[in-house]
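Backbone description:
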Amino acid sequence: MKTKKLSISERVKVYKYRRLGLGIRAISRELGRAPSTISRELKRHGDLLSRDSDYFEQAQLAHKLAHERRVKASKKKMRLKGKEIRHYV
């Protein structure tokens, strides 16, 4: 079973195949991933394709941004903001 997160090598392939003109379903078949995974990757980081950098640089940047998004999302938000309310509960 594949992990949920795309590896950096998979991201390189996604950008390479996309620049070559392959569609989302064709890329997903090549990587053995769900089309929705490829679609989300391109939706989040597709603007990187317009840059003149190579595939590896694009994939590194996308990987970094994805990691930062995971870290930010994993920080727990305090729902009970008031000290008195937290104490009461």
Q: What stands out?
A: The CA atoms of residues 50 and 88 lie 54 Å apart.
